[in-house]
């Protein structure tokens, strides 16, 4: 009787518990990354506002672009991480998991674009 109760309580999720926990850790790492990206945008915008008022309009424009782009990329990172988490959750249970190359490549390109805009900004100030 006790064995029957144990078997009924087992779920597909518990069969792959290590994979689900790793998926959750990965999701949380993406969330931390998104928060850091957003924070960098705010940091640049705030530092720019506190600098000398003699800065050019181009640097003002770039500081605003960096802030807006960082927030946008941070939000996109959260959305993409959530979608990837839910897809991996289902794929783990269905045993059809494949590495999400497109998500990693897309987010990598976003970060490269922000870094490029940073480079331009720091050259101009």
UniProtKB/TrEMBL annotation:
Keyword Ribonucleoprotein: no
InterPro entries from the UniProt entry: DUF202, IM_YidH-like
Transmembrane segments: 27-45, 65-86, 102-124
Subcellular location: Cell membrane
Keywords, sorted A to Z: Cell membrane, Membrane, Transmembrane, Transmembrane helix
Membrane topology, from the record: Multi-pass membrane protein
Keyword rRNA-binding: no
One protein family per Pfam: DUF202
Ranges where the DUF202 domain occurs: 19-90
PANTHER family in UniProt: DUF202 DOMAIN-CONTAINING PROTEIN (PTHR34187:SF2), FGR18P (PTHR34187)
The name this protein goes by in its record: DUF202 domain-containing protein
